[in-house]
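Methods: example folding runs. The two proteins below were folded one after another, and each record is reproduced exactly as written to the output file, sequence line first and structure-token line second.
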Amino acid sequence: MTDTLESLLEAGGSADVSGWDFSWLDGRATEERPSWGYAQQLADRLSRASASLDIQTGGGEVLAEAKTFPPTAVATESWPPNVIKATRVLHPRGVVIVADPDQPPLPFADEAFDLVTSRHPTTIWWEEIARVLQPGGTYFAQHVGPASVFELIEFFLGPQPEARRGRHPDDETAAAEGAGLEIVDLRTARLRIEIHDVAAVVYLLRKVIWWVPGFTVEKYRDRLRDLHNRIQQDGPFIAHSSRHLIAARRPLG
């Protein structure tokens, strides 16, 4: 029996959207993963660091995949539900969670860390990253790239030509170098997403709030109905995420 539009809207609208665990989407949406295996590389770097900082850690899910942490391990997060979740997940592992508004300055001393990391940060303050890195230290991160999931975003908002340039790796490389960092690795990927019902859409737009700012089911009910009918008729809605892996080093000199 096919779920009704209303039951799907209710399911997506009532799901817990705290943290960055997307397992609720199992069976409802799929996304290809980059070939480079960010979590595994992160764990390896953490095992060799002496002091680490993870910026915008979310609920700590990705960081928690690491088996070992350096003697000093800190993570920042701005959204209170995620602060609570990350504290519960990471404090028993010896990682201190600092509530931070994601605005400069970072609440740490100069040259405090030899490893700074982040997965899908919404803001990137390169000068602050460079400031808290020790000479020879590394920023290692997976960023969301340009025009990521714009097929879905533009379905609701219409064409966004100016926004399509945002987060371009060339621009981020220039900004990192402008802050005094050296790019030592940069890889890009464009990955297929399949969305099988509008419950997944509602869940995603409630969770990733910057995709469609001000999203509510009531405000976008007509577009959600259109999308539901389209999926029923044509099959999964196809979009593409954009990612890049970046490693930047603070020079020794």
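Second run, written to the same file directly after the first:
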Amino acid sequence: MSADIINGKDLAQELRANMKEEVSQLVQMGITPHLTVLLVGDNPASKSYVKGKEKAAKEVGISSSLIELPASTTEDELLETIIQLNNDDSVHGILVQLPLPQQISERKVIEAIDPSKDVDGFHPVNIGRMMVGEDTFLPCTPYGILTMLKSRDIVIEGKHAVIIGRSNIVGKPVGQLLLNENATVTYCHSKTEDLKELTRQADILVVAVGRPNVITGDFLKEGAVVIDVGINRLENGSLTGDVDFEDAKEKAAYITPVPKGVGPMTIAMLLKNTIKAAKGLVSVE
């Protein structure tokens, strides 16, 4: 038996087609959703991500602007720019591309963004609302993962979800979203003892460790759902995930590929959050 592949690229394309229709209706009402992206420095990976976001926004009719700042930008200069965008009514969504140069505190920058324009879903107010199950902007990658699971009618309630990785961007929030859907959630990380014993119990396994092919088929329970968040570039230039895809797909019921898996869904959810912000659906006092 070989796993059913959940193709994030195809699903994201479907979602964008629906969003295009939604944006078109908003434009007719005089509202053009606008996303502003802040890019500090010239990290090639960041530039590539930003280009992908701009292209996807254009496809669905969301207007976007890019503010590029030099790597020497001070924390105060960046915070001042964010305050200006917070006060600009024509800007619905603000995204600061991470990572930031050393001299700038990511925490301070994230906290400076108006929570009602925080389309990345990282502001503590939005994370808090997610924790208690209130409507809010969900972090894009975890939101994309949840959307992928639901697109295949995969049962989450009552299932054991194991998350490998505990970052604030993916690991912690994806576990919380699955908990909100009534899964039983276990977090694993670099200090976890006997990782394999825990992963073999997982009905749903989410892997976000940033190391190529560390999870092989013998880490899996037969018929598990495997979500691979990793994107690793090998020496030959090819991309691979954190999961050994060829080995794991023989044991899993469902699996996401790399590329064409979680990555395209992250951008699709960013657009979805931007549309939500333009509609003013999240009011954060």
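Comment on the second run: The longest strand covers residues 34-40.
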